[in-house]
Design a protein that fits this description.
Elements lengths: L9 H20 L18 H6 L7 H9 L13 H5 L1
Length: 88
């Protein structure tokens, strides 16, 4: 249900576009190529299963977890829903 000057389905279109952008961003961030046998941070062995599942992996699970825990991906914030951004 759209209100005001928007057409019916506009909100769903906005949600779909946001999801599509997130999927595209995730696909482009996937690495490719050869995986490292040893972690580039701590030199721990990277298991064969991880190297097969994630082509191009360079970090062990522990180092990858620490890296992801350091901060929030600012690009993942949905700025389309901000009224401030819509007014500009």
């Amino acid at each position: 249900m759209a209100g005001g000057w928007t057409r019916d389905g506009a909100v769903q279109d906005q949600i779909d576009a946001t999801v599509e952008e997130a999927v595209d961003r995730a696909r482009t961030s996937l690495r490719g190529g050869d995986s490292a046998e040893f972690c580039v941070e701590c030199d721990a062995a990277i298991p064969e299963g991880r190297r097969t599942a994630l082509p191009g992996v360079q970090l062990c699970v522990a180092c990858q977890s620490r890296l992801e825990a350091r901060g929030v991906d600012v690009a993942a914030i949905n700025r389309r829903g901000s009224k401030d951004s819509q007014l500009r």
